[in-house]
């Protein structure tokens, strides 16, 4: 009996030790494999290996471990795992990421700051021998925010960067082709380069957080870091204005911390409301002819004209008297469709702000008796506003 309980005690102790070891197992990352038009990295956690890849026919990538570092940061903070890198990484980025985790984990209590172990020599380590490019990029999807950032900085911007695999799923080949045509036209008009990048970064982030609330800033940062050496600076267009800021995956407090001396990452456009960005941009015919806002994309439609984002944007264009010129919205603005909108919890805060701004704009243009005005008014009332 005594022997049995002794054995049992040892088994329990071993299970506990195994658990502790398991809990402390770090996530391993290292330099990637680079080819002419791609780079890939192995991410190792609990003996499982996952591959992050980026592909492009337009740019050369970096294979430094700081590219997958941003992608694994979310799962590391979620699972309280440290990250182990056998190579060197700039201290500037490590210092920035410590600040990033402090802010992020204050906003989101289910995440914890973790340690990033690197093989840096003692003292301040910075990469001294890196080529500083003169190119300046801007992430570009053809939406309101990215068009505005492009127009504001078009003298400085040399490249428009579209990432396939973020808002547009990797399986949407036809929609990618439409965006390629739009982006190439915009780039050719202003003498810029259109850069198309494909990546599975979103798949790796999946399961460790909400794409909008937690993940998409890190995903954009990963792509930006993969281009350090080819670019000196990359703009991320803000998705909200300064008075409506809330914890969000891409944020002026966070995005800039994903850069360092090798590449600057700028969160841009936070000073303007969405409707102000549209009012500024409608003077460019290219904006009206190519604007793409839909994120539902049924049947790979460019703009469905039925989702909240399509209807909200069409309403602004309608109030400004230029919806007829926005040729990528193929259906008429339908007031009945507005009154029937069903909104998810995640989208409700921004929906209310956008709807109120559109009602104000319609009033400013003497349209308070229109069907469209009444439809938004009734919808707001249905959601208690
Ligand atoms: Zn839509």
Report what the structure shows.
This protein has 385 residues and is of the alpha/beta class. It folds into three domains: 24-117, no CATH class; 136-268, 3-Layer(aba) Sandwich (Rossmann fold), CATH 3.40.50; 302-382. It has helices at residues 2-24, 66-79, 91-107, 144-152, 173-189, 201-205, 211-226, 274-281, 285-290, 308-319, 335-339, 345-364, 371-382; strands spanning 27-29, 33-34, 38-45, 48-55, 83-85, 116-117, 136-139, 159-164, 193-199, 233-237, 264-268. Strands 1, 2, 3, 4, 5, 6, 7, 8, 9, 10 and 11 form an eleven-stranded mixed beta sheet that branches. Strand 5 (83-85), helix 3 and strand 6 (116-117) form a beta-alpha-beta unit. Helix 2 packs antiparallel against helix 7, helix 4 crosses helix 8 and helix 12 runs antiparallel to helix 13 (371-382). The chain is globular. Residues 294, 296, 303-304, 306-307, 309-310 line the site of zinc ion.
List the helices and strands and how they pair.
Elements: H1 2-24, E1 27-29, E2 33-34, E3 38-45, E4 48-55, H2 66-79, E5 83-85, H3 91-107, E6 116-117, E7 136-139, H4 144-152, E8 159-164, H5 173-189, E9 193-199, H6 201-205, H7 211-226, E10 233-237, E11 264-268, H8 274-281, H9 285-290, H10 308-319, H11 335-339, H12 345-364, H13 371-382
Parallel strand pairs: 1-5, 5-6, 7-8, 7-10, 8-9, 10-11
Antiparallel strand pairs: 1-3, 2-3, 3-4, 4-9
Helix pairs in contact: 2-7, 4-8, 10-12, 12-13
Bound molecules: zinc ion.
């Amino acid at each position: 009996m005594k022997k049995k309980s002794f054995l049992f005690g040892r088994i329990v102790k071993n299970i506990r030790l195994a658990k502790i070891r398991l809990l402390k197992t770090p996530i391993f990352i290292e330099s990637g494999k680079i080819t002419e038009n791609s780079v890939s990295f192995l991410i190792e956690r609990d003996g499982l290996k996952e591959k992050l890849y980026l592909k492009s026919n337009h740019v050369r990538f970096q294979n430094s471990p700081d590219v997958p570092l941003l992608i694994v940061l979310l799962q590391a903070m979620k699972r309280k795992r440290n990250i182990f890198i056998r190579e060197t990484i700039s201290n500037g980025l490590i210092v920035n990421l410590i600040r990033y985790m402090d802010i992020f984990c204050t906003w989101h209590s289910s995440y914890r700051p973790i340690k990033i172990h690197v093989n840096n020599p003692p003292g301040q380590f910075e990469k001294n021998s890196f080529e500083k490019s003169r190119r300046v990029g801007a992430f570009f999807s053809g939406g309101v925010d990215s068009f505005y950032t492009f127009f504001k900085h078009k003298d400085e911007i040399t490249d428009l960067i579209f990432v396939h695999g973020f808002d547009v799923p990797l399986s949407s080949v036809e929609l990618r082709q439409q965006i390629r045509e739009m982006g190439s036209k915009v780039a050719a008009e202003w003498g810029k380069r259109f850069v198309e990048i494909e990546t599975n970064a979103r798949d790796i982030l999946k399961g460790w957080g909400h794409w909008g609330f937690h993940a998409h800033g890190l995903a954009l940062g990963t792509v930006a870091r993969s281009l350090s050496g080819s670019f000196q600076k990359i703009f991320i267009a803000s998705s909200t204005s300064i008075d409506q800021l809330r914890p969000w995956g891409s944020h002026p407090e966070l995005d800039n911390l994903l850069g360092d001396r090798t590449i600057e990452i700028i969160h841009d456009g936070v000073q303007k409301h969405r409707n102000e960005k549209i009012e500024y941009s409608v003077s460019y015919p290219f904006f009206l002819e190519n604007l793409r806002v839909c994120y539902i994309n049924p049947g790979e439609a460019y703009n469905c004209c039925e989702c909240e984002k399509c209807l909200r944007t069409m309403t602004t264009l309608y109030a400004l008297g230029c919806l007829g010129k926005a040729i990528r919205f193929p259906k008429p603005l339908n007031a009945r469709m507005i009154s029937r909108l069903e909104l998810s919890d995640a989208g409700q805060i921004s929906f209310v702000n956008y709807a109120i701004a559109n009602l104000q704009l319609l009033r400013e243009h003497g349209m308070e008796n229109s069907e469209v005005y009444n439809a938004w008014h009734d919808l707001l009332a249905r959601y208690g506003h």
